[in-house]
Amino acid sequence: MAIPAVGEIVQIHSYKHNGRIHRVWQETMVLKSTNKVIIGANERTLVTESDGRTWLTREPSITYFHSELWYNIICMLREDGVYYYCNMSSPFVFDHNAIKYIDYDLDVKVFPDMSYTLLDEDEYEEHRQLMNYPQVIDSILKANLQKLIQWVEQRRGPFAPDFIEAWTNRFKFQRQLNDEKKQQNPEHD
User: Fold this and answer.
1) Of the residues 20, 23, 128, 175, which is catalytic?
2) 42 among annotated binding-site residues
3) 37 burial type by CB count under 10 A (0-12 exposed, 13-18 middle, 19+ buried)
4) Which of 75, 116, 124, 188 could form a disulfide with 105 if both were Cys (CB 3.0 to 4.6 A apart)?
5) 104 in helix, strand or coil?
6) How far apart are CA 88 and CA 30, in angstroms?
7) What is the spatial distance between Cα 74 and Cα 83, in angstroms, rounded to a whole number?
8) Is the pLDDT score of 187 beyond 70?
9) Is 128 a catalytic residue?
10) pLDDT in tens, 28-41
């Protein structure tokens, strides 16, 4: 699988199980890129919904995608702390300058104190029947939901105490590097 370069600006494409586009984030800067993990960041990026509506994200966020886990994590940096929005999803693929995954409706919202709540169980059940999610997908998602909750409770991955500070600093540094490159090569804008 091709992977983006650190510093590259990519899109994020969320699809539904039936193959239809669900949501697109226009610009996310890649901070780490391996065959297994992509960590990115964005701030005030344009998001386009499947019905064409658009909106801007309100706060900086760090995004975490893994090629073997059936969830991804958006860490939203707000004034009163870090909130995590975790999408139960297929593992990501990187294709045509975009991080792509299938969104499976279930979400976990994690608060700054590491308490959490499961969201959209009704939507998951409705779409599971409507789009005929195979039983194996249902089993995989439920197992990965338990793994995600263990990560939260054990403060692993993006929930680790030093994760946000390290990647926020990396985002600031990478933006500065990209700005310097633009100043040195203005014809590439």
Assistant:
1) 23
2) no
3) middle
4) 124
5) strand
6) 21
7) 8
8) no
9) no
10) 999 999 999 999 99
